[in-house]
Amino acid sequence: MGYTRHPSCNPPGTDDPDKIWRYMDFTQLVSLLENDELYFPRADSLEDPFEGSLPVSHKNNVREEIFNEKSVNWAVQHLPKFRKICRKFTFLSCWHMNRGESAAMWDIYLKSNQGICIQSTIDDLIEGLNTEYNVYLSKVKYIDYTDAKIPGWTGLGDTISPFIYKRESFKHESEVRAIIHELPWHYSDEGGKITSEDIGDEDLEEGDYESGKTVDVDLDRLINSIRVSPQAQPWVAELTEDVCETYGLGADFVVDSPMEREPYH
Question: Origin, by domain of life (predicted)?
Fold first, then answer.
């Protein structure tokens, strides 16, 4: 399996920057190199509480959006709980899409001056995945959750669209995300969509859920280069080079951040 196209997703195109960046702590890099695995945390474990939610306008118009009339009353009553459960079966690997490093992303996502950034490309992320899961890829779209609507959302049968939208206040992230979206319900024969008949009351009860999923990756393909935080001490870069050599990547994978350069004048 691995990368799979999904009609609701919006993968990067030829006009988008090809480079993508994953900002992480040094310990996360060591875990990646040690296990040859990319970690996909559960959607509801991320910092944004709006992950996978619907804008207010959908709540007000749910009767118009649920095409199966038998599901209308069920959706009005249970849709918030249904969306909450969907977040527990969705796992995300989030990347910053940009032609170069981002000072804002260094500041926001790194808790210390020992931060690391992996640079890859869309194609190398796709080709580097080695997994039995279907992994979808989409750029994130940014909207106002107070009055906008998710254009692709068509009721219970479209469970993934809410995960490719975020609030406008996150627009600086310029995010592209890899998505594992595996719901526990069996689809009905009505156009391949979930209806209220497919979901029992027990399916909406809280239970034990995976905190995340790990996906095997080809590190030589996935990682184009590794950058060390411009605020890091020299020993951090030296240690990163040693770690890369230990795990077979080679010290030349660690390159100087252009943000460390002195001005010309």
Answer: Archaea
- How confident is the model over 65-72, as a mean pLDDT? 53
Please give the residue range of the domain that contains residue 168.
2-216+232-255
Q: At what angle do helices 26-35 and 234-246 cross, to 10 degrees?
A: 10
| Rounded Cα gap, residues 56 and 72, in angstroms | 17
Is residue 94 in some structural domain? yes
Q: C-alpha angle 183/3/94, rounded to 5°? A: 75
Contact yes or no for 89/211 (Cβ under 8 A): no
Asked whether the CA dihedral 92, 93, 97, 101 is positive or negative, the reply is positive
pLDDT single digits (tens) 186-240: 554 444 555 555 566 666 666 678 899 999 999 999 999 999 988 888 898 899 9
pLDDT, mean over the chain: 84
Please name the amino acid found at residue 212: G
Q: Say if 200 falls within a structural domain.
A: yes
Scored b (16 or more CB within 10 A) or e, 105-128 reads bbeebbeeebbbbbbbbbebbbeb
Query: How many domains would you assign to the chain?
Result: 1
221 belongs to a structural domain: no
Element (H, E) at 91: strand 90-97
